[in-house]
Design goal:
It comes from Flavobacterium endophyticum. Pfam families: Por_Secre_tail, PorZ_N_b_propeller. InterPro entries: PorZ_N, Secre_tail, WD40/YVTN_repeat-like_dom_sf. The chain is mostly beta strands. Helix content is about 0%, strand content about 45%. It has a five-stranded antiparallel beta sheet with strand order 1-10-9-8-7. A five-stranded mixed beta sheet has the order 43-44-45-46-50, with no helix packed on it. Strands 2-59-58-57 form a four-stranded antiparallel beta sheet, with no helix packed on it. A hairpin with a 3-residue loop joins strand 3 and strand 4 (about 45). The radius of gyration is 30 Å and the shape is globular. It starts with 13 loop residues before the first strand and ends with a strand.
Length: about 775
């Protein structure tokens, strides 16, 4: 029986060009883990899970391609460059395909495999691309797909199991008009390309029944990899060329060179199948390298590594190595970030999972400045794991404290780790009370903040003395939570903020949000609602923030709560929290109902930036009644909808989003108010026809009146600032776009004592 299976008779695609709309976004990605390479005579391109970068071999210019430029944010699993069509093809774990036209930078979204019904959803991963006579053969976890690069249309899909079922295809190649595919379950299958009925699985024969994970054509012979063996087919059977020390994970033939890669070895062979080089990872100085793939272009090796970008060496001299990678943080999965007043940004990579189990991976600390990224490796952080929060001394930003959810607290001065405070520190942090054995030590510090006197406060998980302080004189003091919190020896703590009254608000896994003030009796109080008492997900608070109106915003595993006034802590014992009720389609509903909230940050205009575990970012108006923005991976350059942390540079308005797949930022209106109007500026100015965003007027004082008129004095827009920046959509009171011309911007303080006049030109 024939099985006809067409993805599409025509190519369904979306053409996108990212330009003006993404001018407000920036990417801060890591390029360390290179999982595939695409080669040409003039350029080498490496892909990571979320990004790509290339090096021009003539000019040595490095170019990056990220979600800011139009990548999808989905996991990249294979890339290929077509010399004939000057296009780079990008395959993903979910079957999505992107085609980048190198001459224009335009990206074509080809969702045919991803969206095709009838295939097992989790078997759409793209493993490899092979081009032959203008046709692209796409190896996937379910089979093989043909795609025409000239017409941008799909051909047949080949399901190659013994009965026409799905079977994983690792790689394909063509020799003498026969196509060969290495499969996971059915050995090497082959078929005659001149056969018009190849979508009939019975037209495919078993070429070799062995277990092969890679296949190429080299010097008119089939060469394949099977576990620790590289073999070539000499006409009758496979003959072993090389026995590998480790299983082969990548094989490719390019420019008369055959290259085979294992985790720690790269082997190269010439046209006569003689070995020309053998690179061992331990021979590369000053790094512990692990390999993913390798190729040779113009006589030079290019090796994609797990942690060191692309390593290159000459085929004639494999003792001298160079590293190729753009500047970036150590990893893309950033757990927490913190900006500083002088436009620096700190990042850490591994705190704990949703159940507060520490991440014991060996990650360091990163810092971004005007000089680029400084990555402090694990070898220099005194053995501290599970680095979870960053606290910058507000009076000396060269002094930074890093909370560890396993190893205490690190102190960094002038970019060097100088101390670690843990259970060995007298009167300092303590190890958890209930340990698996007496020798197990885990000092779990999370939320930390400086008070106005310069004392560093922090919470200490699963011990009686849950609240601690490192005073300016170097002494330590602890406060017992016994008698207040239930199950305190089993309770985990998270983020913490200190309000204007000196009250420390911090989240917990069992009791919701806890307030602490050493100058009030009782010292500990609970911010909670009786209505939520039976809901453990509501009581598992994750994020906490104090806004500009002294309200406490609380993010939990199942929604949002607000304490109307932080001042209640000073005089009341019952700190009742409430949901925010909005009207949606005429019906009252709870704002962010059942959303898993991961972070809340308040900007200079008192808007709330809300990060979630799987729904991206919400920007809410000061009272939460209006959603000003909703950013997701689908409608913005966010590389993931899973948000770990958010922070705002109050001076520039840049909002940073640390996701599980990379760090990006959005330049909004989140600036702090200025002291006067001397620094007012407008951007963009002029506003050109292709610009589709909003005009920003920054450098404002709070509560300033802004009027915009045409050159004849007709009022087209008026508003009052909250914070340091306002936006204008270039419409006359939101109704219609204003015409080309010069527009006057009149700014005045609330009492009229300060004024400013600016101009903005609009070109339609």
């Amino acid at each position: 029986m024939k099985k006809h299976f067409l993805i599409f008779l025509f190519s369904f695609f979306i053409q996108i060009t990212f330009a003006q709309n993404n001018q407000l976004w920036k990417g801060y990605f890591s390029y360390n883990e290179v999982n595939d390479l695409a080669e040409s005579t003039t350029k080498i391109t490496g892909s990571t899970l979320k990004t790509m970068f290339s090096k021009n071999l003539a000019t040595n210019e490095l170019k990056t391609i990220t979600t800011i430029d139009g990548l999808s944010g989905q996991d990249i699993t294979a890339i290929y460059y077509s010399q004939a069509f000057n296009k780079t093809i990008i395959g993903h774990a979910n079957g999505l395909m992107l085609i980048l036209t190198e001459s224009t930078g335009n990206i074509l979204i080809v969702p045919g495999i991803r969206d095709q019904a009838g295939l097992t959803p989790n078997r759409k991963r793209i493993n490899h691309f092979y081009e032959h006579e203008g046709k692209l053969y796409i190896s996937c976890d379910f089979g093989l797909v043909q795609y025409d690069l000239a017409t941008l249309g799909f051909g047949d899909t080949y399901l190659l199991g013994p009965a026409g079922e799905e079977v994983k295809v690792y790689q394909s190649t063509v020799l003498n008009n026969f196509i060969y595919v290495a499969t996971a379950e059915s050995g090497i299958r082959r078929a005659d390309l001149s056969n018009p009925n190849l979508n009939d699985f019975s037209q495919w024969q078993t070429f070799d029944a062995g277990i092969w994970t890679g296949i190429v054509t080299h010097n008119n012979q089939i060469v394949a990899v099977s576990a620790n063996r590289v073999a070539r087919h000499t006409g009758g059977t496979f003959t072993t060329m090389t026995s590998l020390v480790q299983p082969g994970i990548d094989i490719r033939s390019y420019q008369d060179n055959l290259v085979v890669t294992t985790v720690n070895h790269v082997y190269s062979y010439n046209q006569t199948f003689s070995q020309t080089a053998h690179i061992v990872s331990t021979s590369i100085p000053n790094m512990t390298a692990a390999f993913n793939c390798a190729t040779i272009v113009g006589g030079d090796f290019y090796i994609g590594t797990k942690e060191n970008g692309i390593i290159t060496a000459s085929l004639l001299n494999t003792t001298t190595f160079q590293v190729i990678k753009p500047d970036g943080p150590a990893r893309n999965n950033i757990f927490a970030i913190q900006t500083t007043p002088s436009n620096k940004l700190w990042a850490v990579y591994g705190g704990y999972n949703v159940f507060y189990v520490p991440d014991l991976s060996t990650n360091g600390v990163s810092k971004f400045s005007e000089n680029g990224w400084l990555n402090i490796p694990f070898s220099e952080v005194l053995g501290a794991n599970s680095l979870s929060r960053i606290t910058v001394n507000p009076t000396n930003e060269n002094q930074v404290y890093i909370s560890s959810f396993h190893s205490g607290i690190l102190k960094i001065e002038n970019d060097a780790v100088v101390a670690r405070y843990d259970h060995t520190t007298q009167n300092g942090p303590e190890s958890l009370f209930f340990a698996p054995d007496p020798n197990y030590k885990s000092v779990r510090i999370n939320g930390a903040a400086f008070d106005r006197s310069g004392n560093l406060w922090f919470n200490n998980t699963r011990i009686e003395n849950a609240m601690k302080v490192l005073k300016t004189n170097g002494s330590w003091e602890s406060f017992s939570i016994d008698g207040f919190a239930t199950n305190f020896l089993e309770q985990d703590y998270g983020r913490m903020v200190i309000d204007k009254n000196g009250t420390k608000w911090f989240v917990s896994s069992i009791n919701g949000v806890i307030g602490f003030n050493e100058n009030v009796t009782p010292k500990f109080k609970l911010a909670a609602s009786d209505e939520d008492a039976g809901n453990p997900l509501i009581k598992n608070a994750i994020a906490v923030a104090v806004d500009n109106r002294n309200q406490l915003w609380i993010g939990t595993m199942q929604g949002l709560r607000i304490l109307p006034s932080i001042d209640r802590f000073m005089s009341e014992d019952n700190l009742e929290t409430n949901p925010i009720i909005i009207i949606d389609d005429g019906l009252p509903q709870e704002l962010l109902y059942e959303q898993f909230i991961t972070d809340i940050v308040v900007d200079g205009a008192n808007n709330k930036w809300i990060g979630t575990a799987d729904s991206g970012v919400f920007l809410l108006s000061p009272n939460g009644q209006e959603t000003l923005h909703r950013f997701t991976r689908e409608n913005s350059p966010l590389p993931s909808n899973s948000i770990n942390d958010i922070d705002i540079n109050g001076e520039t308005g840049e909002v940073f989003f640390a996701t599980t797949a990379g760090l990006v930022s959005f330049k909004g209106t989140s600036t702090k108010e200025n002291d006067d109007l001397s620094q007012v500026y407008i951007y963009p100015n002029p506003v050109r026809p292709e610009f589709t965003g909003t005009v920003k007027i920054s450098g404002l004082i709070d509560d300033a009146n802004i009027k915009i008129t045409d050159i004849e004095g007709n009022l087209v827009y008026e508003t009052t600032s909250e914070g340091g920046t306002i936006e204008w959509d270039t419409k006359a009171f939101g109704k219609y776009r204003v015409a080309s011309g010069v527009y006057m911007v009149f700014i005045a303080s609330k009492d009229g004592t300060e004024t400013k006049v600016k101009k903005v030109m609009i070109i339609r």
